[in-house]
Every structure is written in structure tokens, then in C-alpha cells.
Amino acid sequence: xxxxxFRKGFGLKKAIAGDLAGYHSRLVERLREQHYxxxxxxxxxxxxxxxxxxxxxxxxxxYAYESxxxxxxxxxxxxxxxxHNPHVNARIEALGITILRYDPEGEFDFSAIAAxxxxxxxxxxxxxxxxxxxxxxxxxxxxTTCGSVLNVWxxxxxxxxxxxxxxxxGKHYHEETKATVSQATRFPEGRYLIVRxxxxxxxxxxxxxxxxxxxxxDRLFRHRTSPAFDFxxxxxxxxxxxxxxxxxxxxxxxxxxxGEALAARYGRDQVDAHFRSFDTICSATQDRQDAVLELLExxxxxxxxxxxxxxxxxxxxxxxxxxxxxxxxxxxxxCIDPASGVIRHKPVDGTDEIETAAWLGDGPRRIGMxxxxxxxxxxxxxxxxRVLASRGIAVEP
Length: 397
What we know:
The protein has 397 residues and is of the alpha/beta class. The protein has helices at 17-20, 26-33, 55-70, 86-94, 128-137, 147-161, 175-184, 198-209, 214-221, 231-234, 248-266, 283-295, 312-322, 377-390, and strands at residues 5-6, 37-40, 43-47, 76-79, 97-100, 118-121, 140-143, 165-169, 192-195, 238-242, 275-277, 302-306, 327-330, 336-337, 342-345, 354-357, 365-371.
């Protein structure tokens, strides 16, 4: 009988090593060897000590390449983007793997998938509903869900079993958050509510403490809760979790504020019966945020953050940087035009790309660099080369 579910790869890492070489950068390795510093003429680059691909992303990308080698004659499908990086996803498609996209109703169309096909699940995971649909098809499933995401799922499952509503700090439209909250609904008493930031948390906490803003709650959260959610009944016992790539400081602040609200309502001596909280930010996200904060302690003239515009962890790195130094979040090196001195970038909390001229400035400059967990090293190296080219400097072979 054929095995139809895989979570640990196929042992083909050596076979795909050449395929993955294109994600590497000798220039980035040079910076790493030189204490994350590169000085060329009057430009000094400082690279954060933690950057780029994390273990979960590495694993997901490797499994995609291994799957192609393991099943050379089968059709391969991927449920959404494997990670939030357009170049990586384009290379996955170039392997002959079809990426399934959301339809207008926000559902995946699995009608073309047959039992003999192979379907990859992304690093973000998939919802319980989508997993069950694929199992019903009987196709081979290759599960690349990140271990840090699975840890959050376990936490949400525990809340549901104990009768606690999961309040999840995340983006309600993000694949990971959708998959996470679906774990709660596997249980009869499982409930969830999604908050985006501290401002929304204050609205939630006002209802917990006073209960006088039901209309505001309904307007804001009605489409971010589990079915048949009752604000009065289902917000008396709360367990806090989060999308793993959110801003760690904000997640901790949200948890603390909800704990305060429940203590105000029920008394501090009763808070343990009404509140649960565990830090479920993944270690790679935390490490990258800590590393960029350390880098920002140095004198820098400008900061360049590289990664997909729909990458949550990259957006949060950009947010941290922008609070301290002029910062530019770019999708890739192509956003830097050496000839014109213009950089295309996404502003913090913005949605549309804008252009900024003379962004690098004249004279000696110290340029900080970092990249989100879904950005391969070759994209970092290319960005450094483009910055150098802006000063007419070519990188040595």
C-alpha cells in the first residue's frame, strides 16, 4: 500500500544540493566571515547577525525540490505560496509545480487534483477544512508546515479542550492565522477571535471590562471570530496565542493587556481561572528582530530591509528599523536603480510601492542590511551589488 502522507522529507538532500546553490551568495558569506562588515571605498555595509532564510523556510523549500525528484513523472501541486517570496515561488513553479491560488470566495479549488497527484502544503500550514478535503481525494501529501507553527496549533488545541477561547494576535487574512484558528474549531467548545494590533485589543478589553461597546465589537470582529460566536459568553475565559511572525513586543503587550482586563473584571485572585498566555513567537522571528535591534545601536545612515511585501516578518523588521533610522523595505535588488539613484520601496504600514530619489546620499555612508526569513541570501548579495553600483563600484569576482 502506498504511503500518502510525508512530513520528514525523502532523504534526497545531497541530490538537490546543486539545485539549491542558486539561493546562496558568496558576497554574503564574505560579510559573515568579516564579522558581518564590508567596506568598499567610502561605503560600509553592516549586516544583522541573524537574517534571511530560517530553518522552517529552508526545510519547506528543500521538500519542494525533493518532491520533484521523488515523483518525477507525477503532477505536483502546491496549496498557495510555499513562502512569501516571489522569486522563490517563481523557481518552485519553474520545477513544474502548480501553485493553487485562492478563488474570489477565498477558497482553494481542488477539483483538478486526482488520487495519483502529489500536493505540497506550505510552511504556513493549511486549514483543517482544506486538509480534510485533500485527504478525501486520496492524493499524496507532502507537509512542509513549520514546527513553530505546529507549536502554536498545539497551544490553541489545548485552549479549546480546556474551554478557553483563543484570542490570536495576527492578520485574519494570513494563511498561517487561518490555519491556526481552524485548529480550535476541531473541538465542540473551540472558539477564536483574531486581533490585529494593540488598538483593536483596547476595544476588546473595553468590552471585557465594561461590556458597553457591543456594536463596535460586532462591527470590528464579526468576521474574525468562530461561527456562532457570542461576545458575552465566549470572552470570559481567554487563552492568547499569535501568528509566529508578528512583532514580538506587541504580542507580549497584547497578552498582558488582556490579562489586566480579565483581572479587572474577575479580580486578580481569580485571573488564573480566566486567562492563559504563552509566547508563541517563533525563535527565528525573535532572533531576527533581536539582531536588527542590536544593529540599530550602531551609527547607521540608512537601513535596507529585503523581502516580499506580503511577508509579515519582513514588514515587522522594516517597522522596527523605520523607528530608528531612514529605512527602505525593498522586494529585491531590482528596486535599486544605480543609474538614476532612485529606490522603489514600500513604506511602513503602506500598501503601494513608492519611489525615493537620492536615497543613498553623498560621501561616506554606513548602510545597515537585513532580510526577512523568506529571503534567500542571493537576493541580499544582489542588493549589496546594486548599492555599490550606485557609486560606480563593481564587485570583485
